[in-house]
Amino acid sequence: MKAVGIIVEYNPFHNGHWHHLQETKAKTAADCLIAVMSGNFLQRGEPAIVSKWARTKMALAAGVDIVIELPYVFAVQAAEQFAHGAVRLLDALGCQELCFGSESGDIAAFLTAAKTWFQHKEKFDSLVRSELARGQSFPKANAEAWRQLDSDALDLSKPNNVLGFAYVKAIWQNKLAIVPRTIPRLAAGYHDESFSHSSIASATSLRKVLRQTGQLERIAAYIPSTTAEQLQQYRLTYGRWHDWEAYFPLLKYRLLTSSEEDLRRIAGVEEGIEYRLKQKIASAETFAAFIAATKTKRYTWTRLQRLCVHVLTNFTKEEQNKAAAPTYIRLLGMNETGRRYLQQVKKELALPLIAKAAKLNGDPLYEQEKRATAVYTAAFPEPLYSAALKEEYATAPIYFSGMERK
After folding, report:
1. Considering the entire predicted model, what is its pTM?
2. What's the Cα-to-Cα distance from 185 to each of 103, 170, 190, rounded to whole Å?
3. Which of 96, 111, 84, 123 is nearest to 24 (CA)?
4. What is the number of other CB atoms lying within 10 angstroms of the CB of residue 325?
5. CB-based contact 103:155 (threshold 8 Å)
6. Residue 99 belongs to what H/E stretch?
7. Which of 295, 298, 371, 273 shows the shortest CA–CA distance to 133?
8. Which of 56, 282, 359, 378 has a CA that sits 20 to 30 A from residue 161's CA?
9. Structural domain spans, the chain
10. Phi and psi, residue 180, nearest 5°
């Protein structure tokens, strides 16, 4: 069976994601589609709108055959670390190809860009350092350094291009046999906050509408019915969808009761930002107001969000430095095709395949996952808090036996 990988967050799963799945299957002739999905906290430093279990159900209902978890230590990171963890997991599961969405839609551009990067890596790194010294944020420094290399192969000011470039570099750096492919992103941009198409919208705009109105019917045209069902069921069960404001009291408590020395141990806390964090948190009444008051050219909104997640989960620089590569494959869900594929390859897997979370106790990567779950579920009052916390450890991989639906 030919296995093809995708790297996802599904926050939430929408029609653009469904298009990506269909195009991936058509482009690669995949027998088994494997998604490595971020857990409860995401790459841009945000809590997922619903749990990884609910998003796994969305993925399986849409036609993904296997869903595995990208551990927190890679999921809540900048593009290169995020890509490194994700492609290593897909390789460990025997994926022959990786298909990602991008603004470019041209894999030749990514391959040319990667070749240029490897040939001029020292010069590129020097240019990035110069831009950082001028006070630029890392994304802008990266894009400007790329422009100065006189490379017009790929626009690295576009977020999906940046991630795709990181995937291709990670494949090459790790000498993996995965063939990268890409398809063009449809209609809505990654950061778009409004609807501009009749059926395609960004996850950012969907979450914004849900935050502002709480009305699923307002986004019904942009999501599969199975996504709507999962969102509705989650809110009925737990009384809410997740956003940063639910965690702001916890963050304020952590920052006010931590010393500057304590904060310097946290991953992402650099260049004296700990003093600014403590200064701005005291008077901030909302998370949005806190980030708006704290951000600088160097510390962008996204960088601060990731840092704040690390503060909440007590993720340290030492732990980050030790997280060199994935140590396990955690299975979140599968359908019959996925089950047959795993039976075929289970004796050849490069990492242990884990179905029961108890088997991971003591693994440093999973110990951080447990802390992240403890924070994520703290948005609920008791007894829902304890029930949701238990779900992390008691839930078996989801087996989806239904038919694919849109």
Report:
1. 0.93
2. 5, 21, 9
3. 96
4. 13
5. yes
6. strand 97-102
7. 298
8. 56
9. 244-317
10. -85, 140
